[in-house]
Write a structure and sequence with these properties.
Elements lengths: L1 H37 L1 H29 L5 H14 L14
């Protein structure tokens, strides 16, 4: 209950401070965020982090498959296999619109 009360208090405080700052401050923050996101250094860093994440996920997948593979019921293994096959023909994108570049 204490966490809910803290969350609601923080939400109310953010709303009050946000309305006092006004639309101009919101637009200023939005413009700054857009400039940061379009910075080539930021974009390169984000892409390399995404690439490393995909590599680590692939390694983790293989480790988990080796350790758990024979202990998973056949019905679950068949379902995972069918989902994997269905998703391989999506053109390299995932549910979030990103690619495996």
């Amino acid at each position: 209950m204490r966490y809910r009360l803290t969350f609601v208090a923080g939400l109310a405080l953010g709303y009050v401070l946000g309305t006092r700052a006004g639309r101009e401050r919101y637009e200023q923050l939005r413009k700054t965020a857009r400039q940061v996101a379009q910075n080539p250094a930021v974009r390169n860093t984000a892409e390399s982090a995404a690439q490393q994440g995909r590599e680590f996920a692939g390694k983790a997948y293989h480790v988990v498959t080796e350790k758990v593979g024979d202990r998973v019921p056949d019905s679950v293994a068949d379902r995972v296999r069918s989902l994997r096959e269905r998703n391989t023909g999506t053109g390299g994108g995932d549910d979030w619109g990103t690619t495996n570049t």
